[in-house]
Predict the 3D structure of the following.
Amino acid sequence: QGEYVESGGGLVQPGGSLRLSCTRSGGTVDYGIGWFRQAPGKERLGGSCINRASRLTYFVDSVKGRFTISYDSAMNTVYLQMNSLKAEDPATYYCAAVPCYAQAMGPGREWGQGTQVTVSS
């Protein structure tokens, strides 16, 4: 199986939106895919996940209502739509295979290289 590849990061103004993509080179993405983020000097934290078979999704409180996650089987891609971006959202965003549950997401494995999100006016 190939590695995960993230894309879609960039610079956006506060209140703006970005859509991140996570796909897998040379293979189908795992059943559970999660998005994590890591700001400079801080630990990597989970934010959202999806089970591509059941379409079950999970969000941490800090992004609930602002972020959505989806899976496109034709594109073999998981998307993270980020709206109403705030000053606390800038980080490197990573996708990874995870156990995804309705109330939590498990630890990640098979990490991608990440994509940078910057929020600035």
